[in-house]
Specification:
Elements (H helix, E strand, L loop, with lengths): L9 H11 L4 E6 L1 H7 L8 E5 L8 H5 L4 H6 L2 E5 L13 E3 L7 E5 L2 H6 L7 H13 L4 H12 L6 H17 L1
Parallel strand pairs: 1-5, 2-3
Antiparallel strand pairs: 1-2, 4-5
Length: about 180
């Protein structure tokens, strides 16, 4: 991870958001933004998935969400994630990225294992590519991935038997690559 600012066009988009804020605004980031911008996957994304922090109103969603003026101008947007399958203690493992780049905006990336596990229910082709990328660049310790899944996530899943199979397939996919 870099402590420098994000690459364009993300830098300009986020800088414009920051200049509109008047108080510290943390975003817990996950998804394709973390995989591509923080972990430098060779693919693009036009949205920054961020968790909606409970009990905290921020105009940031209206300012930079889908359909906003910033979205139209930069062709990027913030996507508020209300519900996501996240390991129980993910907040303890957040890492602030692009430290010192913005005055009010604070971007915290989920730990790479947590980013991967947040994709387990959807398990699209892109999700699998992202998991493989993270497994290579981190590189993943598969025991940590399994333990975190079983200890912090499985109990919260709607169909844990299906996700057990997904995890098994992911582990095989990672071992084969």
């Amino acid at each position: 991870m870099t402590e420098n600012g994000p690459p364009e066009p993300w830098y300009s988009f986020l800088k414009e958001i920051d200049s509109s804020l008047t108080e510290e605004t943390p975003l817990h980031c996950l998804g394709g933004f973390v995989v591509t911008v923080v972990y430098e996957a060779d693919r693009s994304t036009t949205d920054l998935d961020a968790l909606s922090l409970v009990g905290r109103y921020s105009p940031i969603w209206e300012l930079a969400g889908r359909g906003s003026e910033l979205h139209k101008r930069h062709r990027l947007y913030l996507d508020r994630v209300g519900i996501a399958p996240l390991p129980e203690d993910y907040e303890d493992r957040l890492t602030e990225v692009f430290v010192g780049t913005f005055k009010y905006l604070r971007l915290f990336a989920l730990d790479p294992y947590d980013v991967a596990l947040a994709k387990i229910e959807r398990n699209s082709a892109r999700d699998r590519e992202d998991v493989l990328h993270l497994a290579r660049v981190v590189p993943f310790d598969l025991e940590i991935l399994k333990q975190r899944y079983h200890d912090e996530l499985r109990v919260y899943l709607g169909n844990p038997e299906r996700e057990d199979l997904t995890l098994k397939l992911w582990l095989e996919m990672i071992e084969e690559s």
